[in-house]
Amino acid sequence: MEGLLLRLPLLGVVGSALAGISIVSVLLAKQASNDPQKKAENDRVLLKELLEGFGLDVPKELEDSEAQAIKSIKTS
Question: What does pTM read for this prediction?
Fold first, then answer.
């Protein structure tokens, strides 16, 4: 009986550590699987919908669904 009571905290720590590692692994896998090109397209569609929803002018870059986004300038 005493042996079981002594092992319970250890099992809780090990179980918590495994659960934490599992959660972090799932989050990292989800982040790695996100396609940047698809996210950019989804962001453009969302921005266009928001601008239209508020009755604001939609720039021509957002009107054309085939237009590529302008690459940002990289600073060194």
Answer: 0.44
